[in-house]
């Protein structure tokens, strides 16, 4: 298809995509933190964040996305793997089996008494790895050039 | 009483989704297939919400939101492919 200098009208898609992007990001954060006792977790939260980024890629282009969110997705994958590895390794220094997770109760401001788990740090690693791998794959095979 | 209504609604939804599946396989043009796929997504959302009424649980609400978002993004991607011939552009102002 040759549409050079054709004024393509994408206003509705672009305006809607910017709003829906934030809705999807909020939903993915909700999924990420819900993962301990109910459906959710780092994997599906990362997939939802990648879906929001893909929506921006669809409505705009990859150059705009690289300007707005200047992340190197390969380095993000590596950072997530390092976080997950360190979180799972820490338990062997306390004579526990590999991947044992620790938790305790804390008095947090505004939230009251909550339990904090080290599993959330492991999930953060999974989240970063999933975003990095998905966006690398989509940008590599999706772009036409 | 409500259970019977929900079972009947589920059966009708399954019939409707079979009709949409026929349109996906047969559909003369690509636009027919895209719209049928989007309708299958909406049908899946209705089936999941009816099931969550039937099982009396709120655990499926995330599934409903997720299906809605994925169906929307898939439809947008198909539509862009139909209109422009490519899905992800590199530079939308200077490309061909």
UniProtKB/TrEMBL annotation, chain B:
Keywords: Antiport, Cell membrane, Ion transport, Membrane, Transmembrane, Transmembrane helix, Transport
Pfam families attached to this UniProt entry: MrpF_PhaF
InterPro entries named in the record: MrpF/PhaF-like
Record field: transmembrane: 6-22, 34-54, 60-82
Localization per record: Cell membrane
Membrane topology: Multi-pass membrane protein
Recorded family membership: Belongs to the CPA3 antiporters (TC 2.A.63) subunit F family.
NCBIfam families, sorted: PRK12600.1 (NF009248)
Name assigned to this protein: Na(+)/H(+) antiporter subunit F1
Organism: Exiguobacterium mexicanum
């Amino acid at each position: 298809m040759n549409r050079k200098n054709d004024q393509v009208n994408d206003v509705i898609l672009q305006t809607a995509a910017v709003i829906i992007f934030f809705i999807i990001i909020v939903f993915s954060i909700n999924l990420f933190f819900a993962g301990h006792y109910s459906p959710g977790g780092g994997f599906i939260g990362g997939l939802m964040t990648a879906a929001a980024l893909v929506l921006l890629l669809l409505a705009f282009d990859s150059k705009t996305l690289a300007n707005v969110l200047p992340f190197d997705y390969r380095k993000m994958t590596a950072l997530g793997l390092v976080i997950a590895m360190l979180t799972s390794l820490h338990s062997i220094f306390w004579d526990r089996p590999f991947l044992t997770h620790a938790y305790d109760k804390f008095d947090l401001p505004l939230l009251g008494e909550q339990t904090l788990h080290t599993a959330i740090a492991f999930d953060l690693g999974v989240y970063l790895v999933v975003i990095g791998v998905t966006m690398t794959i989509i940008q590599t095979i999706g772009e036409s050039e | 009483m409500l259970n019977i209504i929900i079972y009947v609604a589920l059966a009708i939804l399954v019939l409707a989704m079979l009709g949409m599946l026929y349109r996906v396989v047969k559909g003369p043009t690509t636009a027919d297939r895209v719209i049928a796929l989007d309708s299958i997504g909406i049908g899946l959302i209705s089936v999941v919400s009816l099931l969550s009424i039937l099982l009396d649980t709120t655990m499926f609400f995330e599934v409903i939101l997720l299906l809605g978002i994925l169906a929307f993004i898939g439809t947008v991607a198909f539509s862009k492919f139909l209109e422009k011939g490519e899905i992800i552009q590199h530079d939308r102002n200077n490309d061909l």
